[in-house]
Every structure is written in structure tokens, then in C-alpha cells.
């Protein structure tokens, strides 16, 4: 049974979780409860639970501070976060502490049971890998391969020790390469399936004259002599791995650490492969990942002034119901983040914030979005559990398209929609060209439609809305430079000129005349 500790400052919730969830039936046993992080740390060192279910906000030491302390101690316990506060800052911090789930209070019993079932499979898989490594007789072939992949410091300093491993394994001199495989999405696989994967791969590569199979930590590995690095052979190898692994209900990621000139250097290829696995998020799916730039998901791009408005364009696309524009804008945001050197965590944090922001910006204005938001929240869990950037994009696009689908825009009411947007977002850098793209119109044609309907050119209409808003703020006693910035003019002198044009006097004179 997997040991569980429940941490929450509300006694009713602690006992409710303990009694309502069928822990024993799901393969868990609750060994302890705690009212705050400090109590939890004390009990952790007594019971060493494999799963911690913790609230975020608690007196004394909150849930995230507790998890931070445990991670500093090297704890690998799995963590399921509960929170009544669905805001970005908590989610962002939680992601950094390697949590396994993020559920909002009040906890939905069925949702939590599904989460616990998936976690049970993950924890069991970790134990299986550990068991596999402990089962092997000392100094057998696989043990020697592991020693070659991860030599001790003494062995690295004295290459004769590595040469003895090579001789014992019967490895000829030549070029060698390590391919590492990490199993993922194993929730649908049982113990027999996972053992079956290992057994079939052992059997397959035992008959291969230039390949040796091994397991090390959570990885499956292949040491290949004189590997054929052609695209066709790589594809053939990947398909072969898929045939073995995916039929057992698992997904996987395969990477190559590159070729080294001698078998004694296999550890270098192993370490390169392991490092590449950590960055696999940014590579294409369905390939053996290597340092070849062609496998990278998208090219770096130079940052331009227009890129700074990409997030604003995304909000516009959703607000106008422009479904076809959402995915390209999301891809542009990803390219910008990669160009800025963002890592996997930063990418996930950004999209958690983006989805939350879009929903928060639209909800107060649109009744249909308020109804939708009451039943749907951003897919925080799915975002930070994405294995690939493409998965992250798909999750984000799907959610944004759902929101956009709630909007009532359509042919015939574009001008009304545009004027509503201007009156709400007058302080932003709204452009007719951007709106034309989103509504799938030629900008000149949309400009004529706007002039015929409103009697004003687009830019003039925006200026007049801004000036009317500025008059309201001046009436409230705000300073001229504050008003200028608040209505979207970054240059106070330019604001003064516009104000004089439409009002006939300066902003200062207008405020004095009130």
C-alpha cells in the first residue's frame, strides 16, 4: 500500500478526505495527518509517506514552503496540491516544486479518484524500475554495462578500470553510441506489461551483433557499435521501439547521446543522452532525438517591436472569435519565448498566466464567458504535465478556442464588435490591420466599412474615445502625464496636441475650467 499524509489546517477537510476517498480500495493507506507544514515535516520523518496531499494556504508554514523544505532534503515524495485560490502565482510556484496534481477546493471526489489512480501507476512504475535494478546478479553483463555508463570517480581517473569493463563485456574497439529510452504515460500499463517491454527488448538486442541492452535508473538503454546514423535507419529503429512499447499501452521518448570513438567513452554518450532527455520538451515528437537542429520544434526568431504585442493580439483573436488565428499566435509566442532563452518551466508558467489572463480579461464583460468560466478553469495540470511543447500548444489552443467559441461574433456585426473593443481597450495599441486579419478582411475594405458605419476613420474614432476618457480622468483630478499614459499616449506632448485638436484647449486649461 502507498503511504499517504494529508496536510490541511481545516479539521473537517482533513477528516473528510480521510473518510470520503476509498484509499484502501485505490491502493493507498493514510498514515498521518497534519494541520500545517511544520507538523507535516515532523511526521514526514516518522512515516516517510510516498504521497502528500497538501493545502497551499496554512498558518505557520504553508504547503509550498513545506514542499520546498522537503525537496531541499532530497525527498522524492509525490505531492498533490489542494487550493481554494486558483491564481497564477500559486500555480507557478507549485510547478517549480515538481508536484503531481493541482486540484481546486471544494475537491471533486471523482476528479481526485482519477488523479490518485494515475499516481498509483506512476509510483508503482518507479518501484518496478528499482526492483529490476536490484534483481540482477552482481557483475553480470548488465551490471558491467551500467558501470561503463556511470563509472566511479576512481574509474574515470584510471582508464584501465574502464578498459577492464570493456574487455569483460567483449566490446571491440570502434565507434559507440548510447540511446536512452524513457517510458511515459504508463497509467494504462500493468506490471506484466512493463516487464514484457524489458523482456522483449532484452531478447531482441541479445541477437543483435552490434547492440547491448541495459537498464539504468528509470531508463532503458542501448549501447550500439558503429551505429548507422542515416535518417532511414533512425526511423526504422524508432518504429521498432514503438512496436514493442506502444502495444503495451505506454508512450516513450528516445534520444541519442551521439557517437564516441571508443567504448571506454560510452559514459560520455550516456551523459549527453540524459541531458538531452531533460530538454526533450522542445523537440519534435515521433523521432529519436539528437543534437541535430532539424529535430528542434521551431527556429529561433529575432525579436521585433511587433512581437511585444503578440499577447494582446491573442486576446483580440479570442475576443473576436477568430478561431483560425489562435494557433499561429500561440506558435509565435512559443518562438519568442525560445528566442528569449526560456526553459520548459518558464514556457509552462507563461501559458498558465496567459490562459488565466485571457479568461480574467473577458469574464467581467461577456455574460457568456462568465457562464463558461463558472464551469471551466484553465487546464493547469495538463499544461505542466505536458511532455512536449507541441502538447502544451495543443492544450492552450484547445482551451482558447473553446473560449473563442463562446463569443457571438460573426459576419454582419464586425463594426459593432470593433467599436466595443475600442471603448474597452482604448489604452492599448489597437491597429486596423490587426483587426482586419482577425476578421479576415482587407484592411482598406474594413476601413471603408468602419467609416461608412461610424462616420469616422478608425484612428480618429480611437482618438476621440481616448480624449473622452481623458476628460473623465482630468475631472477626477489626475495629473496630465498620468492621464496621457492611462488613455494610451506614452508621449505627454503628443497627448497635449491631440487634446487641443479635439477639445480646443490644453488638458491643463480644461482641468482648471471644471
Automatic annotation (TrEMBL):
SMART domains: HTH_ARAC, REC. Keywords: Cytoplasm, DNA-binding, Phosphoprotein, Transcription, Transcription regulation, Two-component regulatory system. InterPro entries: CheY-like_superfamily (IPR011006), Homeodomain-like_sf (IPR009057), HptR (IPR051552), HTH_AraC (IPR018060), HTH_AraC-typ_CS (IPR018062), Sig_transdc_resp-reg_receiver (IPR001789), Tscrpt_reg_AraC-type_HTH (IPR020449). Residues 3-120 form the Response regulatory domain. This is Regulator of RpoS. Residues 416-513 form the HTH araC/xylS-type domain. Gene3D superfamilies: 3.40.50.2300, Homeodomain-like. It is found in: Cytoplasm. It holds the Pfam family Response_reg. The modification 4-aspartylphosphate is found at residue 55.
Amino acid at each position: 500500500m502507498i503511504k499517504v499524509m494529508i496536510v490541511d489546517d481545516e479539521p473537517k477537510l482533513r477528516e473528510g478526505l480521510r473518510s470520503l476517498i476509498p484509499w484502501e480500495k485505490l491502493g493507498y493507506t493514510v498514515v498521518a495527518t497534519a494541520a500545517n507544514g511544520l507538523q507535516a515535516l515532523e511526521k514526514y520523518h516518522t512515516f516517510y509517506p510516498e504521497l502528500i496531499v497538501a493545502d497551499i494556504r496554512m498558518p505557520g508554514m504553508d504547503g509550498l514552503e513545506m514542499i520546498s523544505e522537503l525537496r531541499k532534503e532530497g525527498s522524492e515524495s509525490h505531492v498533490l496540491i489542494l487550493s481554494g485560490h486558483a491564481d497564477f502565482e500559486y500555480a507557478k510556484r507549485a510547478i517549480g516544486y515538481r508536484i503531481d496534481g493541482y486540484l481546486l477546493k471544494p475537491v471533486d471526489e471523482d476528479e481526485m479518484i482519477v488523479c490518485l489512480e494515475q499516481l498509483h501507476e506512476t509510483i508503482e512504475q518507479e518501484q518496478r524500475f528499482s526492483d529490476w535494478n536490484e534483481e540482477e546478479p552482481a557483475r553480470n553483463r548488465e551490471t558491467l554495462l551500467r558501470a561503463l555508463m556511470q563509472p566511479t570517480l576512481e574509474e574515470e581517473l584510471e582508464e584501465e578500470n574502464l578498459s577492464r569493463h570493456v574487455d569483460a563485456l567483449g566490446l571491440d574497439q570502434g565507434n559507440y553510441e548510447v540511446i536512452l529510452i524513457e517510458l511515459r504515460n504508463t497509467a494504462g500499463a500493468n506490471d506484466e506489461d512493463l516487464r514484457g517491454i524489458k523482456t522483449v527488448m532484452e531478447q531482441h538486442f541479445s541477437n543483435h551483433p552490434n547492440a547491448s541492452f541495459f537498464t539504468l535508473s528509470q531508463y532503458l538503454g542501448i549501447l550500439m557499435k558503429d551505429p548507422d546514423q542515416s535518417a532511414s535507419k533512425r526511423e526504422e529503429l524508432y518504429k521498432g521501439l514503438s512496436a514493442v512499447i506502444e502495444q503495451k499501452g505506454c508512450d516513450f521518448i528516445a534520444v541519442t547521446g551521439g557517437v564516441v570513438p571508443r567504448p571506454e567513452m560510452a559514459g560520455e554518450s550516456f551523459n549527453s543522452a540524459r541531458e538531452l532527455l531533460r530538454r526533450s520538451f522542445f523537440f519534435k515528437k515521433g523521432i529519436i532525438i539528437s543534437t541535430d537542429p532539424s529535430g528542434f520544434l521551431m527556429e529561433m526568431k529575432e525579436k521585433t517591436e511587433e512581437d511585444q504585442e503578440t499577447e494582446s493580439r491573442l486576446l483580440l483573436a479570442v475576443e473576436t472569435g477568430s478561431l483560425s488565428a489562435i494557433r499561429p499566435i500561440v506558435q509565435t509566442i512559443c518562438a519568442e519565448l525560445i528566442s528569449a532563452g526560456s526553459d520548459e518551466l518558464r514556457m509552462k508558467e507563461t501559458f498558465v498566466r496567459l490562459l488565466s489572463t485571457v479568461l480574467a480579461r473577458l469574464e467581467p464583460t461577456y455574460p457568456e464567458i462568465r457562464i463558461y468560466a463558472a464551469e471551466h478553469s484553465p487546464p493547469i495540470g495538463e499544461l505542466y504535465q505536458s511532455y512536449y511543447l507541441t502538447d502544451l500548444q495543443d492544450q492552450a489552443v484547445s482551451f482558447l478556442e473553446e473560449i473563442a467559441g463562446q463569443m457571438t461574433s460573426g459576419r454582419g456585426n464586425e463594426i459593432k464588435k470593433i467599436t466595443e473593443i475600442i471603448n474597452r481597450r482604448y489604452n492599448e495599441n489597437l491597429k486596423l490591420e490587426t483587426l482586419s486579419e482577425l476578421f479576415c478582411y482587407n484592411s482598406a475594405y474594413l476601413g471603408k466599412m468602419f467609416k461608412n458605419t461610424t462616420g469616422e476613420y478608425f484612428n480618429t474614432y480611437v482618438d476621440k474615445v481616448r480624449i473622452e476618457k481623458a476628460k473623465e480622468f482630468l475631472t477626477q483630478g489626475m495629473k496630465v502625464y498620468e492621464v496621457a499614459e492611462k488613455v494610451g499616449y506614452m508621449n505627454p506632448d503628443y497627448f497635449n496636441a491631440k487634446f487641443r485638436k479635439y477639445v480646443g484647449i490644453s488638458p491643463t486649461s480644461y482641468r482648471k475650467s471644471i
